[in-house]
Amino acid sequence: MLRMFIIMLLCLFTILEAAQTRSYDGYTYDQTTFSDGWVSTVKPDWVEVTHNVSPVKILLHYPKEGTIISANSDAEHIAAAWDILVAPRYTAMSDYFVAASITTSSSGYLASATLFDPLSNSWNYVVFFRRGNSGWIEFVAPDKATFMQLIPVDINTINWSTDSAIYNYFDYSGANRFMIASADLLGEWTNDFAAMQDVYNVYTGAVTGTYTYEHQSMITFNTSTYTRYDLFVSGQLGNYTYITLNSANYFAVPNPWMIYFADEQINNNPITYKSYIYEAYFSCIKNARLLWIKKTDPQYPDAEYEYKAYGKSVNNTSTPKKMISPALLNYLLN
User: Fold this and answer.
1) Is 135 left (phi over 0), alpha (psi -120 to 50) or beta?
2) Domain that holds residue 199
């Protein structure tokens, strides 16, 4: 059943394509073409998103120190990021405007201005946006009318009662997504999560302890195999429970958006591993990439799994080699 599922995945037509030239940062793919015509390209300081029928250029800025701060107002918060990410690339400005905050549990930040770009020797209408984890997004259009052909929102008319759904028009953060190749995975990738919660007595209100949960995961990809180590820690101070899981087997990349892990249980651990297909992609930050993986399970197709982000160890010294073993390929294709 699993074998048939893998073969079906291999045969699926992917709605995304990517350029296959080695990128400046050493990864195989630096461009993604989405099914709706938008194209994302890796740049040194942002991901650039363009469309052949729209003159609007979208810059997904990488995180940078000082661009997300505690501030007394939206205007102060936006100004800090604007001065670092936007202003240095332009030489003149007019009609700077900060949009009003919308009353919602997750408000967004919006500003606009007309700016002169010395590189293109032209004036541009620029909109600057962030909400939640979107990162700072910059829209560069020839003029306001052209911008509103793409996003039918006049930010000058936004007020506290505006429907917060309009923020969805501005969030292009999902375009920071690039295909993977086996050679890109070589080395050690880690994901760490920790949370703490105080426990209170329901009668006195006094703190009776602190409950801790931590999960550390490390995946090391070799030429055609991988090893995985997981540590789970939970409990209260002085009474922690530890569970460690270790697995090692083959892996493969059935298509550039998936990783197949042939798992096996070792060390007689009470929790059993099994083989899985993971959806996978890279996102970009400055001088690095994050590996995002999400488990899929054909036995439970309605199960909702979340993507987890893994960062590559800076001390990795692996060198690219042939990645998929003949034995695994034979298993997948027969």
Assistant:
1) left
2) 2-10+181-333
CA proximity to 197, closest of 181, 213, 177, 215: 213
- The CATH code of the domain that includes 201 is 2.40.128
Global confidence as pTM: 0.81
pLDDT number for residue 179: 97
As a whole number, mean pLDDT of residues 151-156 equals 96
| Whether residue 317 has pLDDT greater than 50 | no
Last residue of a domain, one of 127, 153, 175: 175
**CA-to-CA distance for 293 and 250, rounded, in angstroms?**
17
Q: pLDDT at residue 272 above 80? A: no
Helix (H, G, I), strand (E, B) or coil at 243: strand
What are the b/e assignments for 241-270, b being 16+ CB within 10 Å? eeeebebebbbbbbbbbbbbbbbeeeeeee
Q: Which two tokens stand for residue 276?
A: 């899985």
Average pLDDT, integer, range 248-268: 82
